[in-house]
Amino acid sequence: MPLFSILCPVYRPPALLPFAVDSVLSQTLTDWELFIVCDGAPPETVAAAESYSAQDPRIKVRAFPKGERNGEAHRHTVLQEAEGTYVAQIGDDDIWLPTHLAAMSSLLAEVEFGHFLEMRILPGLVPNMVMASLEEGEAQRILETSKCLFGPTVTGYRMETYRRLPEGWSPAPQGIASDAFMWKKFLRLPDITIRTCNEVHALKVPDYFRSHMSIAQRRREHERLALLAADVKARESLVDFAFKNLKQRKTKA
């Protein structure tokens, strides 16, 4: 049985999907199964996903009609057959650093639910660190509001904890972010152990900063990001820059 079950939901054409999947294949920890969850994705996306599955039996493709909201219910369906001890998720337009799963396994060996810092990559490959600490009130903020400062790409949880939830992944009500709606369910569990790890192991590449970019432009950007992620010194420099920029923002504030 694999240590990790990984979800990769996708609804769009496959131009960016290979970068996410390749970053999973590049993990230093190799004990995983990856479910590419096609939420009404076009046939060419399903075909691209199946080409990976044909080459690596750890990769599994599950194709569904378009689900409500972000197809959250499909994630729950897939987790019913998943066999991992831990659960992780990667956005189809995000990139994990090679250290992601190894670091997440260390975190989840100690707590039931945890996350790394989310480093968002702005256009021009500018890193923007987002600080959120479950130990400093972020958990209460999630419970009281409709948003949170870390998404699925940097979050992990134990499968046994997911099984304890009264309700798993399901469509979020309008006005509430899918991840915030899901994290509320975990945080309401009595005596759940949680932690923020102030490390960076992923590149979050948000759509909402890129409405002006064509898919060809985004693919070229991802090609550059993949090279950065694969180079130890380059990714360390990127993370260092983001932390320094964050410190400067706090000083000015």
Describe this structure in words.
This protein is an alpha/beta fold and 253 residues long. It has one domain: Spore Coat Polysaccharide Biosynthesis Protein SpsA, Chain A (Alpha-Beta Complex). Helix content is 39%, strand content 20%. The protein has helices at 17-25, 43-55, 72-79, 100-108, 138-144, 159-164, 178-187, 215-230, 232-252, and strands at 4-10, 32-39, 59-64, 86-89, 95-96, 113-116, 118-122, 126-130, 155-158, 194-197, 202-203.
What are its keywords?
253 residues; alpha/beta; Spore Coat Polysaccharide Biosynthesis Protein SpsA, Chain A; seven-stranded mixed sheet; two-stranded antiparallel sheet; 9 helices; 39% helix; 20% strand; Glyco_trans_2-like; Glycosyltransferase 2-like domain-containing protein; Glycosyltransf_2; Nucleotide-diphossugar_trans
